[in-house]
Amino acid sequence: QQYKPQTTADLHLIKTHYIPDELVNRFSGLSVSADNDVLFASSHRDLRDAAASAIRMGWTTNDTAVSYLDQVFKWYQASEQLSFVNIKYEDFKTDPQPQIRYVADSLGFETDEAEIAAIAEALEAIKTKKVSEQYDRETLMLPNHIGKGEIGIYKEIMSEETAQKIADNHRDWMTARSYL
Description:
The chain is mostly helical. The protein has helices at about 20-25, 45-55, 65-80, 90-95, 95-105, 115-130, 155, 160-170, 170-175; strands spanning about 40-45, 85-90.
C-alpha cells in the first residue's frame, strides 16, 4: 500500500503477504528472468505453519484458518508463477547461507562467502531487534511480525482437525514440496 512506482530508484523492494489480483493480471505474461524491469522473488512454507503464523498475528482464528489458507494458497500459486526465485522457508530457516547465495546468484550479484555470512548475520540481527508499538521505521515490520518461526509450530497453535483439513485441501501442493 505504501509502494509508489513513480519514485525514482535503482531498485524497489516490496515485501508483502498477499498478491493482489491486479498485480497477477498485470504481470502474468511476463517471462521469469532476472533481465526484467520487474522481478518477483517469493518464499513458501508449510501451509499449516503459515496458518499458525496468521493465527499468532491475529489475522485469522483456528475456526477460520482453513478458508484463510484458501486465499493464501492462491497467493502462493501466483507468486510461484511470477517469481524468478522461490525459496522454501524451512530451507532458509535451517541453513540460510545457501538460500542467500541462491538469491544473490539469481540477481546476478557477485558476492563472496564473507558477504553471504554478513547478510545472514544481519538478517539474524533483525529478528532480535526491538520493534516499537507501531512499526519499525527501518524494516517497516509490525511489533510481533517476527516470531520464532519454528517449523511445525502449527501443532502447538491449531487444532489437529484444522491442520488435517488444510493438508487435505492442499495435498498435491504440499506433497510436491515434501510437507506431507
